[in-house]
Design goal:
heterodimer; A: 141 residues; mainly alpha; rod-shaped; B: 287 residues; alpha+beta; five-stranded mixed β-sheet
Chain lengths: 141, 287
């Protein structure tokens, strides 16, 4: 068997080089795209979370109930924005969703606490009224 | 060297494969989601948070699928976290709805209590009005009775030959009821005094002014003293018979107010007298 030496013709060498460049270009483009920013969907999601956190802030105000969740929402929103700036699409998306849910939970907790407080107040008031009426009736008799 | 290289590659591959294929260890958030989501779903008022519970269920299902399909731990944790948060939101909404229901119930109960109180108040007012009517009727009857009593006093005094004058009703005790020149009352006057005292006790609102009078025989000062003494005698007699001191007063007029001429015996006898002037709303003393 004669061993035939591998001889690269100049044209073959050129073809290999072209292919490599193409692959490198594609990778580069991909990286650039990744760094340049996130998809519109993620941007929208982060924007929606911003709105949700802002609204939660307005609704909760200085209330204690929901304050922890609101802070978590703010932290998640900051993480989402950070992920977006780094081109971490999934991180931005997930943190934006976390921020929105934390904001919703903050509002729900605040509203629930207010409703329960109102219920307790009305029940107590009603009980006092009943006692007052009963006492007056007894006096009248 | 080749062996070592091969082992190293194998370890890496096993490690990689192991990481991909090994079932994930216990994931706290997934366990929490598996507990919490069904718990909230079975709440009586789950309907008020249907959308949140639907999201929670979808996320839990996704987490379960990932866990069974050997998905990435981070993905399982993310889906579990979403399921837990959605369930928590639903839970808070349910609590708020329950509290709202309590508020509505308590408000209705409060209205009921107020209504009940108002009804009792009306009932009480009606009873009070009835009582007031009864009291008014009773007062009216009492007034009538007093009127009758007063009338009977007037009748009684009239029976004692009392006469109505501008100064009021006047009863005159004549000279014959006293010893001559003395203030002592004769026993013949006791009957009259008893009746007078009785009438005054029955009518404590009425009072009497006792005036003593003399004729012009003797000097003025002795006549004045005699008139005062006789008036005071009558006052004492009435007080002894239980008449209140506030009802009786005595004054001597001397010979200054004759009712007849002092020239004749008869005239002087008329002038020697004690007058009892009854005062009340209808008759005022002219002191």
């Amino acid at each position: 068997m004669n061993k035939q030496p591998i001889v690269r013709t100049p044209s073959a060498t050129r073809r290999t080089g072209t292919r490599g460049l193409l692959v490198l270009s594609m990778l580069g483009a991909g990286m650039i795209a990744g760094c340049a920013g996130s998809s519109t969907l993620t941007k929208d999601r982060v924007a929606q979370s911003e709105v949700a956190v802002r609204q939660a802030q307005q609704q909760i105000g200085q209330s204690e109930s929901g304050a922890t969740e609101l802070q978590q929402a703010k932290n998640s929103l900051a993480a989402a924005q950070n992920s977006m700036s780094r081109g971490d699409e999934q991180g931005a998306d997930r943190n934006a969703t976390r921020a929105r849910l934390h904001a919703e939970l903050a509002v729900a907790k605040s509203q629930s606490a207010a409703a329960q407080s109102a219920a307790a107040e009305v029940l107590a008031s009603s009980k006092t009224l009943q006692q007052e009426v009963d006492r007056n009736s007894q006096i009248a008799r | 060297m080749k062996v070592r290289y091969t082992f190293g590659v194998s370890l890496a591959v096993i490690a990689v494969l192991g990481a991909c294929s090994a079932p994930p260890k216990r994931i706290e958030s997934l366990e929490m989601a598996r507990t919490l989501v069904p718990q909230v779903e079975t709440s009586e008022r789950a309907g008020v948070a249907a959308a949140d519970l639907s999201n929670a269920r979808k996320s839990l299902d996704a987490a379960n699928r990932l866990a069974e399909g050997r998905g990435k731990r981070a993905d399982i944790e993310y889906q579990s976290e979403m399921a837990v948060m959605s369930a928590q939101i639903a839970h808070e909404k349910i609590l708020a709805a329950e509290a709202q229901q309590k508020v509505e119930g308590a408000t209705a109960q409060r209205q009921q209590v107020l209504l009940q109180a108002r009804e009792r108040e009306i009932e009480r007012s009606a009873m009070d009005a009835k009582d007031a009517d009864a009291r008014a009727l009773s007062a009216e009857r009492s007034a009538d009775a007093s009127e009758k009593h007063a009338a009977s006093l007037e009748d009684e005094l009239a029976g004692m030959r009392a006469t109505r004058t501008e100064r009021g009703l006047v009863l005159t005790l004549g000279d014959v009821l006293f010893d001559t020149g003395q203030a002592a009352i004769r026993p013949a006057a006791y009957g009259t005094l008893d009746r007078l005292a009785s009438a005054l006790r029955d009518h404590p609102s009425r009072s009497v002014v006792i005036e003593g009078h003399t004729d012009n025989v003797g000097d003025d000062s002795s006549n004045q003293r005699l008139s005062e003494s006789r008036a005071q005698s009558v006052q004492s007699a009435l007080l002894q018979r239980g008449v209140s001191t506030t009802q009786v007063s005595a004054v001597g007029r001397g010979e200054s107010v004759p009712v007849s001429e002092n020239e004749s015996l008869g005239g002087r006898q008329q002038n020697r007298r004690v007058e009892l002037i009854f005062t009340d709303d209808r008759a005022q003393s002219a002191l």
